[in-house]
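Problem 3 from the worked examples.
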Amino acid sequence: MFVCENNRYAMGTHLDFSHSTLDLSKKAASYGVAASWVDGMDVLAVEASAAKACEYIRAGNGPYFLECRTYRFRAHSMYDPELYREKAEVEEWKKRDPIPALIRRIAQEMPAEEEVAELERQVAKEVDQAIAFAEAGTLEPVEHLTRFVYSDRSRV
């Protein structure tokens, strides 16, 4: 799966000025790759789209390109003076910040504070376990670095 985090900007240029189309998922078609886009500001929509893409891939249908249309709130790098966008634009997008939106959604579905606190504990535990698993893992052998870069289309 190829996941494109489309935040509408290159380092300092809006995509309007550098791409013929803002629908980057359409570009995958020119490579014969299945693709779709999702509102990257909606955590649950991203989860559902990623699951659908994984199902497609695991069924042996080949690669999949998922464009997550999102926004970055900060500069591209610490050297970026951000002269190419208005502060008001950033503030407007911050109203759609996906993390607080997800927290509000969870709070609506699980109104008890202790339930939300328990969920946060479970998430923290899962993250800690994932980090421990990754740190305990071994590095990929150099000869495997290009494995699965190209798909054997004869099986499709």
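Problem 4, a separate protein:
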Amino acid sequence: MKRFLRSTGFAALPLVLLLPLVAQDAKESKKKKATAITGEQAEQILDELRDIRQLLQQQQATLQALSEKNGPAGPTRAKLDLSGFQMLGSKDAPLTLVEFTDYQCPYCRQFHVNVFHELKKNYIDTGKVRFYSRDLPLDQIHPNAMRAAEAGRCAADQGQFWAMRELMGSNPDKLDLENLVAEAGTLKMDSKTFRTCVESQKYKESVQGDILEAMKIGAEATPTFVLGKSTPQGVDGELIVGSQPYAEFVKQISKLDSK
């Protein structure tokens, strides 16, 4: 078990376990590419999705059992260069909190709705913590997650990243293209430009860069956070995995304040 897994409050299929699934999907897609999907094929796809869900449930049960057997996991440190990434708060804040998120992840929504706004009011808006948003779409199990991550960057082109992030983070069931374009319209964005940006996958490689960095630091679940002292380039801190309650973030921030 990875030593940083502290709870089951996350959506996770470790990326190393997803590789064979991806390879299998690639082989199957080649076979089916030239033919229309029949009713039988559709049922096979549903069966595969059920198998993935069952694998997730089994994996989470195993992780929980290992956690209970081995006791609390030790912290894992991470240093991140955050130059050029979306930041909320004061650039001079002494502490930095980074979230690797998947907009279709129910646990990410749980953090966003129940914890983020309190952190923003009490720590980010007061200059104590600066907050960075990074992407970790688990698109093998969340088919709209990659599109949403790219949509966030497209919204940033029009100065509306945080507003779009608020809408996507609160509504993980409305991440299809038409809903995203409609939301862009409500934010007074140029909807045509936004749609073109998303459809072109202009920021796909950029999102994949976030995924690779997440893998390097051991973040294989969403949400995963890095909380620590601010550095000129970014943050030097520890991983927090899962949708932790507000009180846990307060506890960890207080620890850092006392050092």
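Solution to problem 4. The longest strand covers residues 234-241. Residues 1-7, 13-35 have pLDDT under 50 and may be disordered.
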